[in-house]
Each structure stands twice: as structure tokens, then as C-alpha cells.
Amino acid sequence: MNTAEKPLSGKRILVTRVEEGAQDLARKLLALGAEPVILPMITFHPPDDWAPVDREIEQLERYNWVIFTSANGVRFFLERLRQLGYPPQRLQRAKIAAVGPATARALTQQGLSVDVVPARRYLAESIAEELGDLQGQQILLPQADIARQDLKRLLRDKGARVLEVVAYRTLRANLQPKQVRQIFQKGLEIVTFTSASAVQALAVLVERALLQKVTIACIGPVTARAVEAAGWQAQIIAQEHTIDGLISAIIKGVNDHLRT
After folding, report:
1. What is the structure's pLDDT at 130?
2. Cα–Cα–Cα angle for 154, 158, 159, nearest 5°?
3. Given this model, what pLDDT does residue 20 score?
4. Which of 83, 116, 150, 151 has its CA 20 to 30 A from that of 221?
5. Which of 257, 208, 196 is nearest to 232 (CA)?
6. What are 154-196's pLDDT values in tens digits?
7. Is residue 75 domain-shared with residue 104, that is, in the same domain?
8. Cα separation of the two ends of the chain
9. pLDDT at position 146, please?
10. What is the mean pLDDT of the chain?
């Protein structure tokens, strides 16, 4: 297939993911004929204080479940586990749940078994639906400092005792408004968002009108709601909340536009 025949041929697409994940999305977009522009909006850092995480690592046997809501949570939590001298298998003292396939893959790559991954909707709330009866169950949630509280509330509503610990911090990338504006001025057809925090970071840097001139593609409804809260509109929302699902939604959106 030559470049002109590829489904995203000629589309200049902004990738706002963190550098570690941006390369994977950019590579897949490039293979489909797009011109990806990587501009990470956020960065991830260890927590200011590891003491709460360390305390729970030392007593993992008290938990029935450890639930991970992102691959980054897995990465930082397991890095700290090793720093304390423990192998990843220490986590298997509890059952493990993952929000979706990317998070599950981050766990299995460390030799860990994942007991529950939501079957269809890769949203934190879906985990609560799949875990069944949680009355009296002890659950550990290693999350970001800005994690939504919906999952913790739903788990507690089902009778679980939930402890949330900050495994990593989400910070805005060190970008200047002029730098971002220049990228838009060179021409963009599509802006992709894979997290609400990336939306919020971009909203601080650019005027609202810039995003009203492009198509906005979101990995799922939570991110789309952040787009709406910023005063923009998400024209493309992935049904499967993964990178591949996002790409499929973009291709469909482009094809639907061509047919109109």
C-alpha cells in the first residue's frame, strides 16, 4: 500500500501522550500514513513521600485485592517494591485487578498473574462491577495523586475497605504557550488525548479558539468530559479505551467525514 492509499494519509496529528507511550501511538499513526507530531503535555514523577506506599508493601498480606488503574501505577509501585528489596511476586499475596489490557500487560511483563480485567469497558468503574461481592474485603489502590475518586467510592459502596496510596505524581510538562501555538500554526488536522490531565495541561497553554479549528479525538468518555469542561468538543471518542481503539475511531471518523 503506497502512502496515498493509507487511511490517514496526509493527516497531521498531535500526540499529547507522555513520551513513554507517545512513541507507540506515533509509530502506529505513521504506519497508517499520518504525520504524527509528539508534544507530551504531562510528565510523571515519584510521590513526595514514599512512606504510605512502603507501609502497605510491608503488609500486603492484609489485602484481598490490589487494583491498578494505569500502567504507570504498576511501573512506579513495582519500582518501589524492588527498591525495598522485594520481588514483584510479593504482590501475589493478594489478588490483582487491572483497569484494561495495557495495565494488565504491564503486570504480566513482570511475571505477575492478573485475576480480573474488565471484559469490555476499560474504565476504573468497570472493575467494581466485575469483582462481585466485596463486603468486608480489604483493597489497596496505588494511584496517581490526581486520580478520580469514583472507583474508591464504588468499591466502598459495595462494602469494601479501601486504602488509596499515591504511587506517582502527574505534573504539567515544561512547555511555553508560544512553542505550542507554533505547532498549531503549522497546521494540524487532529489532536489526540489519552488522559484528562493532558487536556487540562493544554488548556492552560493555548487559547480556546485554536482547538475549535481541529478535530479532537479522545481515548474514552472520561477524557471527552475533560475536553468539554475546557470549552471544546470531542468529535471522536473511542469505544474501546485503548490506543488501538483510539486509532480505529480516528480512521472511522476520517472515513465518515470523507463520505459527507
Report:
1. 87
2. 120
3. 72
4. 116
5. 208
6. 999 999 999 999 999 999 999 999 999 999 999 999 999 999 9
7. yes
8. 25
9. 92
10. 91
Q: Is there a single domain that holds both residue 179 and residue 166? A: no
Q: Within this chain, do residues 155 and 64 fall inside the same structural domain, yes or no?
A: yes
pLDDT interval class at 126 (50, 70, 90): confident
**One domain for residues 52 and 109:** yes
Which cell is 38 given?
509528539
In this structure, are 22 and 106 located in the same domain? no
Surface-to-core class of residue 221, CB atoms within 10 Å of its CB (0-12 exposed, 13-18 middle, 19+ buried): middle
* Residues of the domain holding 80: 45-171
Same domain, 37 and 56: no
Please say whether the beta carbons of 142 and 117 come within 8 A: no
Domain total of the chain: 2
CB 206 within 8 Å of CB 29: no
Place of cell 512502603: 54
Burial track 166-204 (b if 16+ CB lie within 10 A, e otherwise): bbbebeebebeeeebeebbeeebbbbbbbbbbbbbbbbe
Q: Which of 25, 66, 29, 39 is nearest to 167 (CA)?
A: 66
> C-alpha angle 47/170/137, rounded to 5°?
65
